[in-house]
Design goal:
Length: about 375
């Protein structure tokens, strides 16, 4: 197990170096960026094979940085700024598998700060390029479990700030509203035939999105249930069943952005109603099928989410239930052109998607069952 270096998240030097006029300007720039951005689209995906059940995908790929993590990065920066943890000369450091770092690099540049992402060496080249495009730098490590300690140590050595998405994700976002993703979903669903979803399905990377949605559902007293879809090798579903399990030796899932080898501090299992595990092969197969349905590429975690959503839809139909299910289109598939959309790359890793794709397509046409 990696020995994490403990670095105070709010050293006094940050507050001393934070002039109030700089703080006001930084927050104003972020707020102006929010004001320039329209809400992300909610895509209706009819399921002809399951009459009375409709799937909706919250398209988070349309954010300026192309993923769901744009919301998280914005919240993390506002949280750190308002807590007095970063100033006009602070280097921002993060441990990330990719998309969060892309978004954080964007916000760091927006307020004039340097940014470094500590990432596993296996991160897709497209994500590394996207971070660098936003003005960030990448520090690659061999062991994915070492990213936490490396990021904390780098921040300590440079006098920077480890923004630590895995700790602060669940508290940086206002889960009661303020245009968080949960409030946005329910607002957009208000004119639909079944405005209160039976299920909302998301993955868990930091745990922040599931924590926000789960808390909001309870706060608004909705009957909606929350399902977290998790790669088979991830620790989260194991911890959900047995709270004494806090880590696994490895999480070799090829699905970036969700699934972790350790239980992150932001994962709140008590707001989750169900977890569904999805093997990587099925995530990739579903990703490809969904991309064909939408006419554009989506990322691997979208495949994980949608496969779980389809299983829930099939169960609803078996029990004679009707209604809506909402899931998340997390990011664009263009970030995985050399990996998940490269058949040779998949073959090298023993990922064969032909048969499951055919089964999924048959299911969606009403000609077969989903369970594999």
């Amino acid at each position: 197990m990696t020995n994490l270096i403990q670095v105070s998240p709010h050293p006094i030097r940050h507050s001393n170096s934070q002039p109030r006029d700089w703080l006001c300007t930084a927050i104003q720039r972020i707020e102006a960026d929010i004001n320039r951005s329209a809400d992300t689209h909610l895509i209706r995906v009819p399921l002809p094979a399951l009459p009375g059940i409709t799937l909706y995908l919250k398209d988070e790929s349309s954010h300026p940085t192309g993923s769901l993590k744009h919301r998280l990065a914005r919240s993390l920066f506002l949280y750190a700024l308002c807590n007095g943890w970063i100033g006009p000369q602070t280097l921002i450091v993060e441990a990330s598998s990719g998309s969060t770092a892309v978004s954080e690099a964007y916000f760091a540049r927006l307020i004039g700060l340097d940014f470094v992402a500590v990432m596993p060496r296996t991160t897709s080249p497209e994500k590394i390029a996207a971070i660098e495009f936003q003005g960030g730098r990448c520090h690659l490590v061999e062991n994915p479990k070492a990213v936490y300690g490396e990021a904390a140590e780098l921040a300590r050595k440079t006098g920077g700030f480890y923004i630590d998405q895995f700790t602060f994700a669940e508290r940086a976002t206002d889960w009661r509203g303020n245009n968080n993703i949960a409030e946005s979903i329910f607002s957009q669903m208000s004119q639909e035939p079944d405005p209160v979803p039976k299920w909302i399905v998301t993955g868990a990377g930091t745990g922040g999105t599931s924590a926000t949605i789960g808390r909001y559902i309870r706060y608004q007293r909705h009957s909606t249930r929350l399902c977290v879809a998790d790669p088979t090798e991830s620790v989260f579903h194991r911890h959900y069943e047995d709270r004494s399990i806090l880590e696994v030796d490895h999480c070799r899932s090829i699905i970036e952005g969700i699934g972790r080898p350790r239980v992150e501090p932001s994962f709140i299992p008590d707001v989750v109603d169900r977890m569904i595990t999805v093997p990587d092969t099925l995530s990739v197969a579903t990703m490809r099928v969904v991309s064909d349905m939408l006419g554009r590429r989506c990322g691997g975690s979208t495949g994980t989410n949608v496969y779980a959503a389809l299983k829930l839809a099939e169960e609803m139909a078996a029990f004679g239930e009707t209604g809506s299910i909402v899931s998340i289109l997390c990011d664009s598939g263009e970030r995985y052109a050399s990996t998940l959309y490269n058949d040779g790359w998949l073959a090298e890793r023993g990922i064969e998607i032909g048969a499951p794709m055919a089964l999924l397509e048959s299911f969606l046409c009403g000609k077969g069952d989903l369970f594999l």
